[in-house]
Amino acid sequence: MTQDVSEQAKAIVRRNTEEVQGGGNWALFDTLFSDDFYDHTPQPGMARDKANVLGLYKRLRVAFPDFRPEIHWQRADGDVVTTFKTYHGTHLGEFLGVPATGRKISFETVDAMRVVDGKIADHWGVANLYSVLQQLGVIATPGVR
């Protein structure tokens, strides 16, 4: 039974990563996320609810119109799915206060999502945004001039 729950949860999280984040399928977002979704690690100054996550996904696709996730692996423990992935894109809109640079970027993310009754209910995550700021030229990369 746990294996079935884990496999179903992984499939839901994968659809969010590939079809919503990667494909901009905003109608699917509403289907995949619980109305009482709670983000345990929101971006600074942002709300922890479902609407805020959708806003973040949309902002990412404006900043990086070719935004593409690459899932390296997923592991599930019951209804909690941990995913390690790299996001790729071309910086063509404002992101983290940085105007478009036209640079190609990539950054790693690890997140955990809890799936309840077929919907994503909780999120915990860490993204390497320091690396993004280095790639955009905002922060110097040690040893690079």
From TrEMBL:
GO biological-process terms attached to the record: polyketide metabolic process
Pfam families linked: SnoaL
Domain of life the protein comes from: Bacteria
Protein name: Ester cyclase
Natural source organism: Ancylobacter defluvii
